[in-house]
Amino acid sequence: MNDLERRIAKLEIIEECKNVKRQHFYLTDSGYPPDELVELWCEDGTWLGVYTDIDDPALAGTSAQTQYRGKKALREFWALNGQLYDWVMHIDSAPIITVADDLQSAKGKWTFLMPSTRKVHGVPAATWVGGIHIDEYRKENGVWKFYTVRVDIKIVATHDNGWVPSRYLDEPPV
User: Fold this and answer.
1) Which of 31, 66, 149, 162 could be disulfide-bonded to 52 (CB atoms 3.0-4.6 Å)?
2) Cα 77 to Cα 140: distance, rounded to the nearest angstrom
3) Nearest of 143, 171, 140, 145 to residue 158 by alpha carbon
4) What is the reported pLDDT for 119?
5) How far apart are CA 57 and CA 104, in angstroms?
6) CA distance 103 to 89
7) % helix / strand / coil in the chain, to the nearest 5?
8) Could you give the CA distance from residue 18 to residue 27 in angstroms, rounded to a whole number?
9) Are 173 and 55 in contact (CB under 8 A)?
């Protein structure tokens, strides 16, 4: 492969990785269909859990993360999210994707803000969720998929109360 072919291959991989993320956001915004979402992951893929930095309020804002590894755990995770959220809309920006020199894996970073309707203390509430997705992609059976998605949450707040004085709700989401 010459230099031009390598550069074109990297650009194609970047677009394929962007499409995996776009499909993920589209599906979550369409009601969290677990069977469709799980197909975006490699067989041994991992989600390093959304909102888990508030599962224990003492760890809010730290790197504490719950792992959902493998398709069975991922399917259960997406089903729980589908029960929690009545509505979500991912707004993403600033994707940064780098492709490994061997063209077999890639890494991505995405900033996102997600207005949503979810249950807070059992009652539907307008909420804001935002942070950074840090993704690892692999090609599995000729298809680019997530290998790992880590979510660094920067805000989970109600619309009514905003993110002051706390950027985190005091209740675990699931």
Assistant:
1) 66
2) 22
3) 171
4) 82
5) 39
6) 32
7) 30, 45, 25
8) 14
9) no
- Per-residue pLDDT 10s for the chain (174 aa) are 999 999 999 999 999 999 999 999 999 999 999 999 999 999 999 998 655 444 444 454 455 557 889 999 999 989 988 988 999 999 999 899 999 999 999 999 999 999 999 888 888 999 998 889 999 999 999 999 999 998 888 888 888 887 776 666 665 544
Residue among 123, 131, 121, 105 nearest 20 (CA): 105
Residue 136 and residue 104: Cα distance in Å, rounded? 11
Cβ–Cβ < 8 Å for 137, 110: no
Q: Is 87 helix (H, G, I), strand (E, B) or coil?
A: strand
Give the separation between CA 170 and CA 156, rounded to whole angstroms: 10
**Whether the Cβ atoms of residue 116 and residue 88 lie closer than 8 Å to each other:** yes
pLDDT for the residue numbered 88: 96
Q: Would you state the torsion angle of the CA atoms of residues 65, 62, 114, 10, taken in this order, to the nearest 10 degrees?
A: -70
Give the whole-angstrom CA distance, residue 80 versus residue 51: 12
Burial class (CB in 10 A: 0-12, 13-18, 19+), 50: buried
